[in-house]
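STRUCTURE:
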């Protein structure tokens, strides 16, 4: 019997995609996330090219990381991620206009989104300025971080304790740093607009 050596074979990435597609369909959610947590490659939001000017605020039970986010096709502005046991449980993007939003447990949300379980992983803020979205983000960190823990599929995250007083102080520091980022980047954006409006040599 002759076999065609050019017969298509799935790549490793394609096999991984098939595996997770099947897993999200047949496995109970707690088991699915335990398996995913042990086998995934972590891509921390703050280490991606879309984040810069990062600063960490460490408090009892967690870490808030503040950064400037610039996501093509979505928006730009100050952002923050709350990490508990090295797991991102809350992400806030203060882009202003109608694009400001937040994510509960974004890594888990993206897993389900990629395989058709959720329509979106974003929860949008009311339309407003970047500063208004920073105020909303501060409120969300103070009030809903505990809900984010409970919504996480990992028992170790659900059982984790955050010091509410230190969390409130960390949120206030986060707000201060985010407002500072708005001020710093406002000058850069103004210079960019001037450069775009200035005639080029070919136009003169």
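SEQUENCE:
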């Amino acid at each position: 019997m002759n076999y065609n050596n050019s017969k298509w074979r799935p790549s490793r990435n394609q096999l991984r995609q098939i595996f997770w597609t099947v897993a999200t369909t047949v496995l109970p959610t707690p088991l699915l996330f335990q398996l995913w947590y042990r086998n995934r490659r972590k891509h921390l939001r703050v280490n991606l090219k879309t984040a810069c000017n990062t600063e960490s605020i460490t408090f009892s039970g967690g870490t808030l990381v503040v950064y400037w986010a610039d996501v093509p096709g979505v928006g730009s502005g100050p952002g923050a991620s709350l990490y508990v046991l090295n797991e991102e449980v809350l992400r806030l993007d203060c882009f202003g206009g109608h694009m400001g939003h937040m994510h509960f447990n974004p890594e888990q949300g993206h897993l389900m989104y990629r395989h058709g379980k959720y329509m979106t992983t974003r929860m949008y803020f009311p339309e407003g300025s970047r500063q208004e979205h920073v105020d909303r983000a501060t409120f969300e960190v103070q009030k809903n971080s505990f809900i984010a823990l409970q919504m996480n599929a990992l028992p170790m995250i659900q059982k984790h304790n955050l010091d509410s007083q230190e969390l409130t102080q960390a949120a206030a520091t986060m707000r201060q740093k985010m407002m500072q980022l708005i001020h710093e980047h406002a000058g850069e954006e103004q210079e960019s607009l001037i450069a775009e409006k200035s005639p080029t040599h070919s136009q003169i």
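REMARK: Residues 164-197 form the longest helix (34 residues).
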